[in-house]
Structure formats: structure tokens, C-alpha cells
What we know:
6% of the residues lie in helices and 53% in strands. It has 266 residues and is mainly beta. It folds into two domains: 19-161, Immunoglobulin-like, CATH 2.60.40; 166-264, Immunoglobulin-like (Sandwich), CATH 2.60.40.3340. A ten-stranded antiparallel β-sheet has the order 1-2-3-8-7-6-5-4-9-10, with no helix packed on it. Strands 11, 12, 13, 16 and 17 form a five-stranded antiparallel β-sheet that branches. The longest helix has 13 residues, at 4-16.
Amino acid sequence: MRRVVPLLFALAWMALAPQDVLGANRATFTDKVGDACCTEDIQKVVVSNDDAGMITFAIVAPLLPDSFGRADQRFIEITTERSSFTIEPEPDTGRGYLLWRNEGEGLLLGRVRAEWSGDVFRFFIDRHRLGDADRFTFSVAFWSAGSMHAEADGAGPWPYQVRLALGRVRPVHSIRQSGNAGSRLTVGLALHVGRELLASGTISCSANVGRRRLRVLRQEFVARHAVCVWDVPRWARGHVVHGVIGVQITQHQGSLKRRSFRRLLT
């Protein structure tokens, strides 16, 4: 009986706890079998994310008996509340994959890690690269084009919700002064989730010397750390700076993680 009570309590907590506290998510979507010709047949897509915000698309697409061969073009279209994105093959080599934001003529955001093992294709992308999306819809398309044919199989669109373990995030900050005669103040914030670093959210930077506010030069994620850089004018040297660096991870009210700091400017 003693073991049953803690177990029942744990199950009740899991049922009532916000999903942002539990973190991580996984969803499986199925597509009609046999609706493709002459290329892979998309049958299942498993989307998941870990507590650090890494999103994985695992696409199960075996070859059909009458296939001409594997597709040479694979696309993932992703639509968030703020923008739309496309993962597509590199146009020159076709060996790697690129992430584009579909605005105007398109904005290249860099490479996407992809793996292929048997009939499963996997794509990995950080939530931060999708504009810190908490939810999105996506669709998948495989194309096979030859001199005598052009065949495709598409699947979706499907919805997905990104869940992060906000209750497990442990913020740790670092601070240094550098540049010509100490003209730059840099503060970093690492959002630890177990052994991983979460690199998602909106960064906020605030630093004051007395009643005067220092000018923010840059705020961005660098090597999975939130980084704020301030200009240190001559008048501020020899005085103590007080500041706060924070990251609003999601729209959830309790997702703001921040640390205050103070330092004598030299």
C-alpha cells in the first residue's frame, strides 16, 4: 500500500501538470498506402521534439515495386503563426538540405541535418530556426523526375505542437568585458535542460549605470547561448553596472528565464 500512494500521486500530477512542465512531444501521422507511382510511397511521418527544442521529422517511405528509383527531390513545407518555411535539397549538389523562409524572393537560413537509413528519412531542425514556433502545420512531398517521367507523392498537411520542459530549465549566466580598452560588455545566458542547452525564445537585455542605460549593440543566440552585448562609454568606466539578461522561451506566462548581474566596469 505504501508504494501505491506515491504512484497514484505521480499519475495524478502528470494528468494535471501543464504540458510545458512535462516537456517533449511526439506525434505519428499516416498517409494512404499505394497512392504513389514510380517513387517512394510516403506511409508514415513521426514528428517529435526533445526538451531542448530539437525537432525531428522521421518519414517512412519505402520504394514501390514499379518504382523507377528513389526520389531526387524531397520537400517539407512548414507553416507557423508568423511565417512559412521550406526544407529542400541543395540545388547544385542535391546531397544536402537547406532551410528557406518563404518571404518575398525567399531568405536562405542555412543547412538542415538529414539522415537516410533504409526506408526512413530523418530531418533535424531547431525550434529557434522556425521563429520559436510553439505550433505549426507541415506537409511532405517526394519527387522523382526523369527524361520520360515526373512522379510525386505528397502527404499532409498535419498540425504539430512543440512542448518544452520549462520547469526543468536552469539558467546560468556569464559576463566579461572586452574590446578596445574595455569598450564592450558581453553577458551570456545558458539555458540548461539536463545535459542539453535550449536555444529558443526572445532575448531581452537591460543594463544601467546609475540612472543611465547602456546601449545594446547585439542580442542573439551564439553556440546555443543567449548573448547580449552593450557599448561601454568612457563615462561609465569605474562605475558599477547593474543589469538583467532574459529569454522569453514561449508565450507561456511562466516561460521567462532570466538572471541579474552586476560588475565594476574598468
